[in-house]
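(Protein data)
===
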Amino acid sequence: VCGGSAEPLPLADGQGDLPQFPADAGKPELEWAFEAWSRGEHARVVSHCLSAEGAQGVKNRTTADGPAFVAVIGGIAVIIRIQTATGHMVIETPVARLPQTQYVGAMRLALELSASTRSAARYAVREDTLFLRIVGRLDSMTPAVVQSGLKSIVSRATDDAKVLSTSVHARVLSPKEHVD
């Protein structure tokens, strides 16, 4: 027993009042996000996580699939969709427009970039635009996971855009080109 004659504390698995996330006194938004997550209010979770990340120009709207958000974080446009019917959350960012003359090479490079990391983010293509995306089940997208996903996707998009533009001459998109 540490502390001399103090009574030992009883230990039991699964009990206690430890916080479910690391406390950050500078970001009360994360505490609010965890409260919203515990009530199943996924749109509020996203809103608080975007605020905690210092997102700018946040726009939200309701689509046929559910709530959707568009914001700029660190100069990168991020789109978040909550698909209530399927129970998924999609976090994505358009990274670059693929050149028609090197489309196959660009796709091969995108596959290599996806495979070379342990990140959950993977590349997808719509028409000529390359998107970096993370898809997760709503019940597993805790505020900590959402915030980590936002940081990860912004960092990877920044780094991978440089590789794509120099290797296959893909045109990197600015946030103004795809926020609206």
The chain has a mean pLDDT of 80.
